[in-house]
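Deliverable D2.4 — example input (structure tokens):
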């Protein structure tokens, strides 16, 4: 990796010398480094990681039933070339929920534009998530809404 980015120094390099252990909440619990040519003791690191995991156990995620999910009628209206639409689609892909809602492109599908206009008003902006008759139009708000339902905790 370091070589790919042009930062690998073959003889006196500094790559691959740091060890960072981060818990499930994103808190750094251990940081250490070894000097040039130094070696790590994997058994010691495993013991340390196990100790950290015991002291700071991962919180159990909520049961799937405890979370709200998108209704089956949910539709995401998008427009080709719209960076905000692309951001919502990327987030949905990362959250593994793209199969939950239907995607309709208002530039490719005249019916999609008509349907969105009838639900959200003439010339409604995209992206727009429509669920149960409720329209959400800001990309950040849509992404937050999807994350609340589908992000792993």
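Example output (designed residues):
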């Amino acid at each position: 990796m370091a070589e790919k980015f042009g930062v690998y120094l073959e003889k006196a390099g500094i790559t691959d010398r740091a060890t960072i252990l981060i818990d499930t909440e994103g808190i750094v619990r251990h940081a250490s480094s070894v000097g040039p040519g130094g070696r790590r003791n994997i058994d010691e690191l495993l013991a340390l990681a196990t100790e950290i995991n015991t002291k700071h156990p991962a919180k159990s995620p909520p049961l799937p039933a405890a979370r709200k999910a998108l209704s089956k009628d949910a539709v995401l209206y998008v427009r080709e070339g719209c960076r905000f639409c692309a951001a919502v689609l990327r987030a949905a892909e990362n959250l593994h929920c793209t199969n939950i809602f239907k995607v309709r492109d208002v530039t490719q599908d005249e019916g999609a534009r008509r349907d969105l206009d009838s639900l959200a008003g003439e010339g409604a902006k995209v992206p727009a998530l429509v669920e149960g008759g409720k329209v959400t139009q800001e990309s950040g708000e849509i992404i937050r809404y999807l994350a609340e339902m589908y992000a792993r905790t």
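DSSP finds four helices and six strands in the chain.
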